[in-house]
Amino acid sequence: MKHFLTLALVAVMLGLSACSEPAPRNRGVYMLIDTSGTYTEELAKAQQIINAVLAKLNPGDSFAVARIDTGSFSEKDIVAKVTFDERPSVANQQKRAFLESIDRFIKEVRPATYTDITGGILQASEYLNEKNPGSKVILVFSDLKEELKKGYVRDFPLLLDRIEIIALNVTKLRSDNVDPREYLNRLEAWQQRVVQDGGDWRVINDLDRLNQIIRG
Amino acid sequence: MSLAESLTMFPSPFLTAIFWFLLVSVVLYFTRAPAHRAMATLFQVLSEAMQLAAASIHGAENRLAARNRDVLLASGREAAERGIEREFERVEVNVRREIAQCTAIDRMMTEALTRIEEDHKRSMDVPPAPPGWAGVVQAIAEVPGKSDPIVSGILEQIHTSLLKMQKEAINAYRSAVQARHEHLRKMAPEWRNLTQLTTQMKKNVTTMIERSQTIDRQMDEYENVIRRTEQAERTLTASSLSQFFVSGLVLAIAIGGAFINFQLIARPMAEAVGANSFIGNFRIAEIAALVIILLETAMGLFLMESFRITRLFPMIGALPDKTRQRMIYATLSILFFFACVESGLAYMREILLEDELATSAVLRGEAQAAATTSYMWITTTAQMVMGFVLPFALVFVAIPLESFVQSSRTVIGMVAGALLRTIAAVFLLLGKAFDYGGRLLVDVYDIAIFGPLWLETVVKPAGSGKPVRSSSPRIRKKPGDTPAVNEAVS
User: Can you give the pTM of this predicted structure?
Assistant: First the structure.
């Protein structure tokens, strides 16, 4: 009898564990767009990437686009954000509305003086952790040359657990052409920092591979 | 010190090898009898175990075969009973119809015969005879004095009157004959009618004879099944196999239809239950679509059961007619509801598709897609019609499903029987292998000690006969073995 009760209890526990809340399968994507200096000229490509990401996202996914400027750790820098409705028809409407917001931003954007990439990544990780999707991706559309205003503190560990950071269209600066090691060191430094803080790092410079940005 | 070094007895390895060989041979020679017994016993045990297992499996196979036979004959009897029952129902319907017709035909034949008789009687009426004035005329004609103008005038008048009378008589005769002919002419269609009626009767009787022949044939089959003849078993087995494959093929086609149905409704289902909800690895939208299709199939089964076309649920077939009728209406209503839902979902699917195409076009930077061309309504209509028709088409899955379930019992039994036979054969083979393996090992043992054995034959006096052989038991049938083992060994 005792064994029977134990078996029954185990069976109930197994049943309850099977009925527990499943892991989320939705995706969260946060895209940072560098608006400093001459990089604003690359914004057409950013729009192309946003379109590709929108085409890949499904109902239930979250997507936000923010700009990188002097102080990027701010909600004000978020250009557009959306969590797509569970219904595909509504999600399609949301995609179109999102696209219009981006169009407006591209037309009205002004170059920023400084480039606070770390602040942007912090803001992105905060947004994604709050949404808590199944997979978290931060897209950084920048040359990865960080220029902080005097007094801004950014040299501390980032919380990037289970977050994948993809650097897109990392253009070479004039100084990189003089000494390519600068470019390589810049990339390596970012990779080291991201991996140390618990994230994954990828670089995609070939925009023909846009379909690889969001997997699945 | 290594093992090789410890075994080295002489400087020469050859001498060492000879020494050890001789030593081992002597030891093996003296332990020959117990070694032979041990080997023989071990292999005998293994062999008998295999034979026992084979016999046991063979017994299980026999029981399974008997069970399969029972199932096959029972299903065959049921099918034959059903066939005969239906044939009798048809005969009953035919008989009722024919008997009703027989009365009418009989009445029609009687009427036709009466009319023919009447017409015949009428045709027998004798036409009116010419007036009997011939004698008077002759008497007047013989009056003398014909040259007398008065007599001549009278005769002339009489002649004229006679001619007139004759003409009238001929006319009367002709009309009488015409009337008789008319009666005879009227008889012809009546004859034809009678011929048709007899043909009809003959046809009905032939149909009944054919039906009775069919019943006779089915009764023969039924009797064969009842008598459990081998012919009946063979026929039923062949029939089950063909039914299994045919119904399997039809079910595969039905699954294809269900898959198309699933594709039609799974996508728009996301609008109702959400596109990002999962149970395990499956989207809830897909599960919902699948559940709808399964419900439709279940309703189809109930409908077919209520019509008594299939007999998967005997309880439904045994329900009173009124209850079954209510079930038919209920299942038909639910199916109609599902058909409407599917049709709506198919329409929704098309709208969603167009919406997605438009959004993709916008994302690609193209102008609004011109996909909504004038002929798009054709695909929309086709999808809606398919969505409406497929639930009703799935109803008929019940028929091959019943056939498949019934024939699969026989087929699975046959496959299991064949499997058991194969396993039993393998065990028997292993038993034999162990038997001969034991004997082989005993002989190999003797080969290894050929030296001492040869010496034994040399040293022993010639009269003592053969060298001393071990009393090793041989594996063979013994009275102590179980009947199963003996049977298996034989």
Answer: 0.65
